[in-house]
TrEMBL record:
It holds the Pfam family NHase_alpha. It comes from the Bacteria. Belongs to the nitrile hydratase subunit alpha family. This is Thiocyanate hydrolase gamma subunit. Fe(3+) binds at residues 125, 128-130. One of its GO terms (molecular function) is hydrolase activity.
Length: 238
C-alpha cells in the first residue's frame, strides 16, 4: 500500500500545476506583511481593496497636468518645487486619499526635481521599486528590473542612451534614489516649439517617461512607447 500511495502522489504532482508559474520573494513579503497589518488592525481588508482599485485606475495624467501648469504659471511652479504635496491637490491628487491615512509610505515626502539646461534628473529606486504612484500611476515594468535599478546609479549616461536619450557632455546627470520615505518626480524642461500652447496642449506631450527622466517631451510625441533603444552596454546578469 505504501508503494501504491507514493505512485499516486507522483501522478498527482505530474498532472496538477500551480495557479502561477512563479511567485517572487517580494510578492511573498507583500502577502505576509499585508495579512499581518490587517491582523494588527493597521488597516482593514476593505481599505486595502479600495487602495488597490485606486492604484490600478490612476495613470500619469495628473503628473503631466502638474508639469504643464507649472510651465505656464510661474507662481504655481514655485509651489510645485517647494511644496509638491500641496501642488498635487491643485491637479486633483490628495496623497491622503482614498484611505484617509495615506498610501503605504508614499505620502511621507514628495519632491519634484526641475531639469535645467545644465542639469538633468532621473529617478530610480535602487533597493526595490518605490515610485510616486498617487500622481504617476503604477511604475513601468522596466523601472522595477535589476538591470535598470542597479545600473542607472552607476552608469546613468549609457543607460539613458539605451532609452534613446543622448545628453550633451556639459549637462550634469543627477540620479535621485527613492526610498521608503521619499518619492521623486522630474519636471522636464518645456520644449522649443510650444510657445503659445495652452495648458491642455502641453499636458498631452508630458509623457510618463519624461516624468521619470529617461526621455524628453517633444511636440507631437504623446506616446510612452520607447522606440529608440540599443542593447545594454553593461548588462546585469543574474
Amino acid at each position: 500500500m505504501s508503494g501504491h500511495g507514493h505512485g499516486h502522489d507522483r501522478d498527482h504532482a505530474n498532472t496538477v500545476k500551480p495557479m502561477v508559474d512563479e511567485i517572487t520573494d517580494f510578492e511573498v513579503l507583500e502577502i505576509a506583511l499585508r495579512e499581518l497589518c490587517i491582523e494588527k488592525g493597521l488597516f482593514t481588508a476593505e481599505q486595502h481593496r479600495l487602495m488597490t482599485e485606486y492604484g490600478e485606475q490612476i495613470g500619469p495624467a495628473p503628473a503631466a497636468r502638474l508639469v504643464a501648469r507649472a510651465w505656464v504659471d510661474p507662481e504655481f511652479k514655485k509651489v510645485v518645487l517647494t511644496d509638491a504635496l500641496t501642488a498635487s491637490k491643485e491637479v486633483g491628487v490628495d496623497w491622503l486619499d482614498p484611505t484617509g491615512f495615506g498610501t503605504p509610505s508614499d505620502f511621507y515626502a514628495f519632491k519634484v526635481l526641475e531639469n535645467t539646461p545644465k542639469v538633468h534628473n532621473v529617478i530610480v529606486c535602487a533597493l526595490c521599486s518605490c515610485y510616486p504612484r498617487p500622481i504617476l500611476g503604477n511604475s513601468p515594468e522596466w523601472y522595477r528590473t535589476p538591470n535598470y535599478r542597479r545600473r542607472i546609479v552607476r552608469w546613468p549616461r549609457p543607460v539613458l542612451a539605451e532609452f534613446g536619450l543622448q545628453l550633451p557632455e556639459d549637462v550634469e546627470v543627477r540620479v535621485a534614489d527613492s526610498n521608503q520615505k521619499h518619492r521623486y518626480m522630474v519636471m522636464p524642461m518645456r520644449p522649443d516649439g510650444t510657445e503659445g500652447w495652452t495648458e491642455d496642449q502641453l499636458t498631452e506631450i508630458v509623457t510618463r517617461d519624461s516624468l521619470i527622466g529617461v526621455a524628453l517631451p517633444k511636440p507631437g510625441v504623446t506616446t510612452n512607447v520607447i522606440t529608440a533603444s540599443i542593447p545594454a552596454i553593461r548588462p546585469i546578469v543574474k
